[in-house]
Amino acid sequence: MNAPAKIDLDTATTNGPTPADLEITIRDERFNRESTPSRWWAGEPFGTAWHNALSATFPRGEAFFIEAVKAHREGAPPKLEAEIRAFVRQEINHTREHIAFNKLAENAGYDIKAIDERVREMLELTKDRPAIANLAVTMALEHYTAMMAHEFLANPEHFKDADPEVRDMWRWHAVEEVEHKGVAYDTWIHATKDWSAWQRWKVRSLVMVSVTGRFFKNRWVDSMNLLAQDGITGWKARWGLFKYLTVSPGVVRRIFPAWLAYFKPGFHPWDHDDRELINLYEGEFEDALMPAE
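Structure for Metal-dependent hydrolase, as requested:
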């Protein structure tokens, strides 16, 4: 059931640039229970490997995001508190659907257990870190998911030839990532309200640089491993994946300006209001439910 989170806008405290009329909708959708595509990205291995590698990190990663945000919800203004609840519910649904999606990869013969195990080992290292550090990492990674989500929705080239049900799952996930893109950031602002603007900027910028290095290194290694399982190795694998990411459709090249914007003093995820992408998705969804005449 799709239902907007209950947020009393009359009494809520606004969260900076986050739109006061933003509604975070819980879209309880299910995908990929029957389909079994292998090279689901138009039969092409490089996009398939990249997205399979990305999806393999989500079940544990999104559980980490949930706990990092929840750890700082005490004392949050009512609007933010409601948005955190909605964020948690959306991320729980994303986890469930990526577990189902990951089974597609396994059913197609891909071994993704090594990816899951590395994520588990990395998250073990976070248990002794200050909670605010985990929130800073979550905030940076949520910016990554929001950037890619915007690109996937704005540029149909990414999924135009993909398996239809897989495409629907990624677009559904992308819509909700755009919708809740400010929640971790606003939680960070709340949790660091006693910090100076300089301290906030310094920490979030340094964390983003660190996260970026690990993100691309690990996803590259994971994708190379999956391509090797497809019999694609050496320069063919490296050039094919590089071209996919930077040339066509070129998601990494296309998100670079949004990544750079993160380092701007006073940055906020909702500096760019891209809710029209959500409205487009919702309109298509409603059209799909209309009975044929």
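The chain has a mean pLDDT of 89.
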